[in-house]
Amino acid sequence: MQLGFLVDLHLCMGCKGCEIACKVENEVPLSTWRLRVKYVDVGVFPETKRTFTPLRCNHCANAPCERICPVSALHYIENGIVNIDKERCIGCAGCVMACPYGAIYIDPETQTADKCTYCAHRIASSLMPACVVACPVEANIFGDMDDPASNISRYVMEHQGNVQVRKPEKGTDPHHYYVGGGNVTLNPLASVRPEGHSLFTNITHLPVGGHH
Amino acid sequence: MHAIALEATNAVVTLDVALPGIVWGWIITMNMWAKSIGTGVIFILFYLLKKYPNEAAYLRFPLTVVSIVFIHLFLFFTVIDLHQMFRFWHIFFHPHWMSAITVGAWMATIYVGLIFFLAYASFIKKDNALFDKILIWTVVVGIPVTLYTAGLMAESSARELWQMPTESAQMILAALLAGSATTLLIGGKLPYEAKRDLAIILGLSAFGAFILYMSEYIFGAMKAEEVAATLEFIKGNGEYTTMFWIGQIFAFIVPMVLVALSVTNKSTSLLALASVSALAGLWVSKHVWLVIPQLLSMS
């Protein structure tokens, strides 16, 4: 079994329901995230549009975080998920430095690394990840990539030529795919990130893991 | 980061979470800087004892003590940077050998044992033959201790700026630069020829490291988009431009010039200044190189 995730960006409307569901399900502390939806505005008024990109751990087959972890706190489980053992983590932040997707953070409460686990605890109980359940437009498609009859496999086959991963040049072989993505949505260097404000906040940087 | 939006897209991030601050900051800089001195003095001591066995004999114990002090500073800063420092022992009981951190921790542990053995041989046993035998193994183990941080940086796939084998070369050059500079400051009683040799090692290490930095500075942006974006922080009005050049001038340019003047004039009076400049500048240059890739948004 090789679990994978696909987000159809044509469908995503940026409601952040997945973000909230993830926060609640995994008790993700304030100022940190396992899953977030990034808004990028494109164009010049009146020819503008807003893009929405859910971002989470890519559960790479060649995961830099798993390789760099000195104590195997980050490890593969048999369904392909890159899981984390927070009791073993020493908080060296090597994984934070290694992840090309910025998907790992230091939990300010436990002072250990944390990230999306595709809700491994729910999957163990044959439940879908919380973000999949919460999505009102079924933009999140999750399943077994090794099963040609699974929703995700069929979706990938139907959208051949339009399925992308983030930063393929890193050679990480992500198991997280996007349909309808583009340079602006998938490449962080393709958009400007003005300091000081965004739609609802004026915070752009936070201390890592709080004070320790 | 690009200062303005691309005309064709005018793409601007309008809502996102706060970005994490610097993950590896000055504590890791202290780690790398102290390690450069801790292993560098042992490399230099090995050279001096081969080339000037009688004149450099008195440095066996002092340089061993310097190595012990700075390796423990390195270990101290390594441990305090951990968010769960009291779990440090997990590295020894749950080791993951693909990680440069694990390999480095084990090598550093062996290295600490060896330098204490050196102290025992020189201070308690007073056995130079034994010391010199252990010194060979200390040098051998000192090489991976010096290099493991480069491996760690290479494993940091997110930070395109840190490339192998450039980082390995930088680590070895930093150790030779720091080792020769520290020995010049301590080895006042060394003959002129030995000091000249140390000065040449210092000057060549500075030259080599400067060439690597400048090569990356000039050509790095032509290879990869992320490197280009990272180097923007040390170019023009970049956030770290001033600090970068302070590091380059003090760590490399000033020592190169002073060493050239010293060797040309057969004088050693400028070497102490060159050494202090090199050690201070090394900290700054390492810090800038450590921090700037962390300023980029990864997602």
Structure keywords:
heterodimer; A: 212 residues; alpha+beta; Alpha-Beta Plaits; 4-stranded mixed beta sheet; two-stranded antiparallel sheet; 11 strands; globular; B: 299 residues; mainly alpha; Formate dehydrogenase/DMSO reductase fold; 2 strands
Provide a concise account of the structure shown:
Helix content of chain A is 19%, strand content 22%. Chain A is of the alpha+beta class. Chain B has one domain: Formate dehydrogenase/DMSO reductase domain (Formate dehydrogenase/DMSO reductase fold), CATH 1.20.1630.
Task: Write the SSE topology.
The complex is a heterodimer of chains A (212) and B (299).
Chain A: E1 3-8, H1 17-26, E2 36-44, E3 47-55, H2 64-68, E4 74-76, E5 82-84, H3 94-98, E6 105-106, E7 113-114, H4 120-123, H5 130-134, E8 140-144, H6 151-158, E9 163-164, E10 176-179, H7 183-186, E11 205-206
Parallel strand pairs in A: 1-10
Antiparallel strand pairs in A: 1-8, 2-3, 4-5, 6-7, 9-10
Chain B: E1 12-15, E2 19-20, H1 26-51, H2 60-80, H3 90-93, H4 100-124, H5 128-155, H6 166-186, H7 192-219, H8 225-231, H9 241-265, H10 271-291
Helix pairs in contact in B: 1-2, 1-5, 1-6, 1-10, 2-4, 4-5, 5-6, 6-7, 6-10, 7-9, 9-10
Descriptive notes:
The complex is a heterodimer of chains A (212) and B (299). With 212 residues, chain A is an alpha+beta fold. Chain A has a single domain (3-190), classed as Alpha-Beta Plaits (2-Layer Sandwich), CATH 3.30.70.20. Chain A has helices spanning 17-26, 64-68, 94-98, 120-123, 130-134, 151-158, 183-186, and strands spanning 3-8, 36-44, 47-55, 74-76, 82-84, 105-106, 113-114, 140-144, 163-164, 176-179, 205-206. Chain A is globular and about 55 Å long. Chain B has a single domain (26-295), classed as Up-down Bundle (Formate dehydrogenase/DMSO reductase fold), CATH 1.20.1630. Chain B is mostly helical. Chain B is 69% helix and 2% strand. The radius of gyration of chain B is 21 Å and the shape is globular. Chain B is built from 10 helices and 2 strands, in the order E-E-H-H-H-H-H-H-H-H-H-H. At the A-B interface, strand 2, helix 2, helix 3, strand 6 and strand 11 of A face strand 1, strand 2, helix 4 and helix 8 of B. Strand 11 (205-206) of chain A pairs parallel with strand 2 of chain B.
